Amino acid sequence: MSLPAVAPPARPAPNVVEAIREALPRLRRSERAVAETVLADPRRVLGETLAGTAALAGVSQPTVVRFAVAVGCSGYSDFRLRLAHSLALGTPATHSVILESDGLEDVVGKIFDYTISSLDWARRHLDPGALARAVELLENATALAFFGFGASGIVAADAQQKFPLFGVPCTAETDAHQQIMAATMLRPTDVAVAISNTGRTRTVLEATRLARAAGAKVVAVTGSDSPLARAADVALVVETLDNTDVYTPTISRIAALVVVDVLSTAVALRRDAGRQARFRAMKASLNDQREGGG
Amino acid sequence: MSLPAVAPPARPAPNVVEAIREALPRLRRSERAVAETVLADPRRVLGETLAGTAALAGVSQPTVVRFAVAVGCSGYSDFRLRLAHSLALGTPATHSVILESDGLEDVVGKIFDYTISSLDWARRHLDPGALARAVELLENATALAFFGFGASGIVAADAQQKFPLFGVPCTAETDAHQQIMAATMLRPTDVAVAISNTGRTRTVLEATRLARAAGAKVVAVTGSDSPLARAADVALVVETLDNTDVYTPTISRIAALVVVDVLSTAVALRRDAGRQARFRAMKASLNDQREGGG
DNA sequence: GGGCAAATGTAGCCTTGCTACAAGAACTCG
DNA sequence: CGAGTTCTTGTAGCAAGGCTACATTTGCCC
């Protein structure tokens, strides 16, 4: 007699903290009190029972339940479970601001938390359609050129090293002049990958235009719906959490690296599948050359 | 009247799945049945109630409770919470093996899961003492030299770009001859950072010895207790999950990047406010290189 | 083979989360 | 400006779920 309850959604488990923030304006006053209690110290709430949370927020128990339902959970138990899930993916960004007074342990914790939660965010905000189109382009390319400056240049260099997976010659240009020259020289069957977190780096934009003028396709890897995203054939928007803190490392490059991992792996899988198909076809052809029966 | 229950440990929340695996041999027979049920499909169990899990494993409810206690939880509720936490950090590696038959969505999910869980693993296996010693060395350095090949070369190049945070001149050598030359030329007040996941790259090892012979200190960033770790003054062992799958991207470089983030941020925090001002000015100058919004 | 200890299941208690209902606040419309 | 209505919030009781004391069974050792 174990009805599967409301099994938590398999993959796109929405971050409950995010959901609370988003739902905040449309909540009733006392429900908002609960929301603020949770946001103020999620970890504390996680250890509390329904009655405890109610006391903490200064409201009645049913109000807490109503709050849980309002933010998309099926009840308080489900809420707690999802909260645990969300907290595991790093404390929300606002808590990860690095302070002058932080010890080394704090820095380690905050940076890892921040990186992990940003990766989770990036994953959930990736457009599967765009990704599929990008893989499609890369798979059919005769050569790949990666463009990027600074941190994005690192991503470009890393992508270039993955040429065994991409299966075609790869170059990475991290110099302005080289980018312009390489973009101009692209063949129509080549694909350029323009990497820029801001999506406003002038030279990368220019290289994108030149590449398209040369007839090549361009995949953009960028942090927001930017000029670069609009200038490319396919835009992979790799959203990361806001980065207002001076000390906070540039998470964008890590998310971009992981996206490149996804692209290279997906392309390799497809190529292998293709190769296997061709291999099977070849074997079949070979069999036709032989006389029947073992 | 809300006794804080057994509040889940603040930071070093041990992965419960890992804990189960580790505890498996010393469990009683029926408890082991529960363990195997959980390991077989953790997500399923997460949705189940105590009675449900007991039924699933074919044992009584108290046995499930005893199992939970045996793996370090305070009860079934706590167990569920921790399981949610662990599952959020990515399905255990064994489930992340990428198959030929995987669709794009699967590849995205598996690579992100794998990356996130590996980062979590790396964080929990970092030696805080070694990290502190590394920060100490870097903080007092007059110049930094990063050495690495291949994927580790990417990490070195990334680290070099963080010189504004490190506050001293930084170089990154990814060429064998350059590494040897640079290592030989180091001053005793300089610090070298040798990066190698295997910890057995010959040239990096040689550069480490030369650097130390020149009187410089060497910090090693490596994936295991390797020759490089032993040859250096401080060894930062960045453990990542086993990587047996051909398709699985090299997670080690991402973990190493995050460790470099930690190092650079920790060093920057220790430095004076004057440098911060210059750092902000630099960021402002960078913005001038970008095209206006919209 | 008998006794002892460890292991597992049974039964009941108590906490906890959920829901029907009622009281109160706020807003609206005459 | 007041009465009606709706929306919001708290009270009380219920059902379920997790926990524990105890009894039974299994396995081991002498």
Tell me about this structure:
The structure is a homodimer of 294-residue chains. The first copy, chain A, has 294 residues and is α/β, with parallel strands linked by helices. In chain A, 58% of the residues lie in helices and 8% in strands. Chain A contains 14 helices and five strands. Chain A has helices at residues 16-23, 29-40, 42-47, 50-57, 61-70, 76-88, 104-124, 128-139, 150-160, 163-166, 176-185, 202-213, 227-231, 251-288; strands at residues 144-147, 170-173, 191-196, 217-222, 234-237. In chain A, helix 12 links the parallel strand 3 and strand 4 (217-222). In chain A, helix 2 packs across helix 4 (50-57), helix 2 packs across helix 5 (61-70) and helix 11 packs parallel to helix 12 (202-213). Chain A is elongated. The model of chain A is unreliable at 1-12 (pLDDT under 50). At the A-B interface, helix 3, helix 4, helix 6, helix 7 and helix 8 of A face helix 3, helix 4, helix 6, helix 7 and helix 8 of B. Chain A binds a DNA duplex (30 and 30 nucleotides) through residues 28-31, 49-51, 59-63, 65-66, 75-77.
Task: Fill in the keyword field for this structure.
five-stranded parallel sheet, alpha/beta, DNA-binding, homodimer, disordered N terminus, 294 residues, elongated
Radius of gyration of chain A: 25 Å
Beta-strand residue percentage of chain A: 5-15%
Strands of the biggest beta sheet of chain A: in what spatial order? Answer: 2-1-3-4-5
Q: Largest contact between protein chains? A: A-B, 80 and 79 residues
